[in-house]
Amino acid sequence: MYRPTIGLEIHAELATRTKMFCDSANDPDEARPNVNVCPICMAHPGTLPSINRDAVRQVLRIGVAVGGTLADVSEFDRKSYFYPDIPKGYQISQYERPLVTGGSLAGVALTRVHLEEDTARSIHHNKKSLVDFNRAGIPLMELVTEPVIPDAETAGRFARELQLLLRTLGAGEANLEKGEMRIEANISVSKKEAGAEGSLGTKVEVKNLNSFRSVERAIAFEIQRQIKLLESGGEVVQETRGWDEAKQETFHQRFKEGSADYRYFPDPDLPKLFLSEISEFSREALQASLPELPWEKRERWMRDYGLKEEIAELLMQDIALGMFFERVIVDRAVEFVKLAVNYITSDLVALLREKEKEVFESADDFIKLIDMVLAGELSSRGAKDVLRIMVEKGGDPGVIAKEQGLIQVHDPALLAAAVDAVLAREEKAVAEYQGGKLSALQYLVGKAMQESKGAGNPQELQRIITEKIS
Question: Do the bridges between strand 100-101 and strand 108-117 make them parallel or antiparallel, or are there none, so unpaired?
Fold first, then answer.
């Protein structure tokens, strides 16, 4: 039996106004190449970097959120390696003195959280390699976990929770498909020792993971690859591998460097940060700046509104949808909340995805729709039809319902006429119900709803039908 051990290294671009060490704009959506550049981020001789205060504050807020230890003194280091997307021939990062050490997230222990600058972006086209320096120097958070993750599912859950935390704190959007969040997995397997944890195996780093599903699949594949290699008498070598999405397998890229290969040393152009002497960087000040954290909100929703875990998670993963939910259900009774949750998480979510729309900015019309259902003015079917129009075109649900003839009819004479027409046509169903087949009653109610063009109150129709045929 083998024991997998996984550690994650996650980089996330921070949403600051300017880059990490200069005043060039931090704009990840800029499509024109080499626009947001300056002599500093292009590493012209004689230029001097200066530290982005907001980027430091954001990483410290993340550290407080995960319960990490904030450094009293921190500094930046030069990490030397040569590649076309590194204009200086080194990257400014942190090694010995990161901003944050320790902490945990989603039950996974953290090693450190530090700050560095992003690289440029290499573009390969028509057998040529081009470099866009817009991204060079953007503030980049790197978070490293302890090697304690046991399986692919836990790794995926951790990465999703980190993305949610970054978005909640306003630290960044962390979109994997845009490269704003990049995940690397260090994976090893070792034989389980009886009564002991056993030693760790040789770790392999896997890169090119641009979705949470890729993270999970790459880790699962690599675990099995290493086990098969060991079982056949082979040896796992320390290397960096990529993930081939088309083939659903990892592949060799290069042999892994060690920290000594990077020749870390403190950057002589940047001062040490005496963080404990800066009042806005105190733990108390940072704690006071935090919003309700994802796990706190998830627990509150489940406790106060009785949401199931999967429903709470659905609302958590879409921050705009979660905020809309909270505006809808504030100060509302339990019956209203249950109905609203049902329409939001099933009908509304499906319509927004189908129509590629954003959730409503105002909750007022949606609240009115739910109130109409509770008041018996709209049937469930009618409410779904009205909601579709609201998503497609907008509008007041009351006006839409009247225009579409969906306001429920409560007039006994009109409903009785609809029932009589149905019973005259559906003699077989009437006989089946009278013979004890209870499902025939719902069939008759459905036909009566059609007869009334969806405007009949189903409860009232059912009452009239049972009175007439019982």
Answer: antiparallel
Question: Which DSSP helix (H) or strand (E) runs through 115?
Answer: strand 108-117
Closest alpha carbon to 262 in 100, 146, 93: 93
Interatomic CA distance for residues 328 and 322, integer angstroms: 10
Contact between residue 265 and residue 283 where contact means Cβ atoms under 8 Å apart: no
Beta bridge partners of 92: 78
In angstroms, the CA 308 to CA 253 distance is 43
Cβ atoms of 128 and 112 within 8 Å: the answer is no
DSSP string covering 418-459, please? Answer: HHHHHHHH-HHHHHHHHTT-THHHHHHHHHHHHHTTT-B-HH
How many C-beta neighbours within 10 Å does residue 8 have?
A: 25
Q: Answer whether residue 197 shows pLDDT above 70.
A: no
Indicate the angle between helix axes 364-374 and 319-329, nearest 10 degrees.
50
Decide: 407 and 401 in contact? Cβ < 8 Å. Answer: yes
How far is the C-alpha of 357 from the C-alpha of 239, rounded, in Å? 44
The shares of helix, strand and coil residues in the chain, as percent rounded to the nearest 5, are 45, 20, 35
pLDDT band at 84 (very low <50, low <70, confident <90, very high): confident
> Which pair of structure tokens corresponds to residue 190?
């070792």
Phi, psi torsion values for 232, nearest 5 degrees = -85, 5
Which pair of tokens denotes residue 275? 């963080």
pLDDT tens sequence across 404-456: 888 877 777 777 888 888 888 888 888 888 888 888 888 888 888 878 776 77
Q: What is the dihedral of CA 22, 26, 31, 37, to 10 degrees?
A: 0
Q: How many CB atoms lie within 10 A of CB 170?
A: 12
**Residue 68 DSSP class:** P
Question: What radius of gyration do the chain's Cα atoms show?
Answer: 30
Determine how many CB atoms are found less than 10 A away from the CB of residue 349: 16
Say if CB 168 and CB 56 are below 8 A apart.
Answer: no
Say whether pLDDT at 464 is over 90: no
Angle 85-86-91 from CA coordinates, rounded to 5°: 140
For 9, what's the count of Cα atoms within 13 Å in the CB-facing half-sphere?
Answer: 12
Structure tokens at 168: 């909640």
The gap from C-alpha 207 to its chain's centroid, in whole angstroms, comes to: 20
Q: CA-to-CA distance for 72 and 97, rounded, in angstroms?
A: 9
Closest CA to 41 of 76, 88, 7, 84: 88
